Structures are given as C-alpha cells and as structure tokens.
C-alpha cells in the first residue's frame, strides 16, 4: 500500500493546506482528502504538482507500507 507523506512534509516546509493548494494548483478538497486519508488514490499528475510545490521529489512524498492483514470473517 502506498502512503502519501503530504501532511508531514507540508508541515515541515511550513505550508498550510490553503498555501499548498495555491502553490500546487491542486484543489483544496483534494489536499484535505489526502490529509485525512494518506492512502487515498491520487493521480501521478497530482503527486507531481504537490512534490514540485513542496520542493521535493515524488519519491520523497510517498512511502510503501505493508497491507493490513485481513481480519477473520471480513472480506
């Protein structure tokens, strides 16, 4: 599973959600969605815009985390 480190990196760089939205030309609701759910599906274009605005590579913005094991009885 891919985890988007947007909130952590934005805070390190001093970006509020609004400032990041303006700097990246990414809709504020998209940024809010990623903040709430860092494993949300995001286009490569959006990742590229966010990384550029934050001054990092896309590789720095994402990390891979292991999938959670399925709980018995849930599918």
From TrEMBL:
Pfam families: HTH_26
Record flagged with keyword Kinase: no
Domain HTH cro/C1-type as annotated: residue spans: 6-61
Keywords, in A-Z order: DNA-binding
InterPro entries registered for this protein in UniProt: Cro/C1-type_HTH, Lambda_DNA-bd_dom_sf, TransReg_Diox_bact_type
Source taxon at top rank: Bacteria
GO cellular component terms attached to this protein's record: cytosol
A GO molecular function held by the record: DNA-binding transcription factor activity
UniProt-listed SMART domains: HTH_XRE
Record PROSITE patterns: HTH_CROC1
Stated name of the protein: XRE family transcriptional regulator
